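User: My instructor asked us to take a sequence, write out its structure as tokens, and then describe one feature of it. I'm not sure where to start. Here is the sequence I was given:
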Amino acid sequence: MNAELIRIGDDIVAMHAVVADEGITLIDAGLPGDRRILQQALAAVGRRPEDIRGVVLTHGDSDHIGIAEWLRTEYDVPTYVHEADAGRAQGEKAPGASGGAMKLGPALQFFAAALRRGGLRTKHLGAVRTMRDGDVLDLPGAPEIIGLPGHSPGSVAIRIPAVDAIFVGDALTTRHVLNGSTDVQLGPFSDAPEQTPESLERLSALPERTIVVGHGPMFHGTAAEMIAARTR
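Assistant: Let's start with the prediction itself. The structure tokens for your sequence are:
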């Protein structure tokens, strides 16, 4: 299968497109104001939003569902989310979670970017398609779903061998949005961070050499290497 991985956004908040001959799978959906950057990124490779066959969420937090509802209502693009996070993606209140240590500069940069990109205008999903651990979705790239509870009950890793990548959402981060640390570490605002390390072990035998996080640059190496590099 010919497929290409495209990064859309930046190290503060990113979404990713798997572009294949038969269409596009969007992994996460950024922030509500990200329509234009999506359109520009797709146009650069000769594609349009109409080519998106589905959005697959690593979890249901507001900075990951961004433009998914717009894609659903404008282009009839379905959004897939683990059944344990379906309510969160549709607007149920998430439990409070600690963000961890904060530094003023990086935190202000994160909140300013979120504000500029429509972070206060969250559009929750009017409808979702639920998925479970072990599912392989009938979408470009054949995304394989691996449950990673911890950051949220329905957090997942999305494995796409066609682009040699595993998407881990906020289970791990390479740019802590509140303090700017570039160490590999657990993502902030986690519901049950003590659960995440055990969940991550499910990825340790996988061969893919690009680990994609929701915040920060990609990690170039295997999941086992990234787990070994984690600082806490």
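For the description part of your assignment, you could build on this observation: The two ends are 37 Å apart (CA to CA). Try explaining in your own words what that tells you about the chain.
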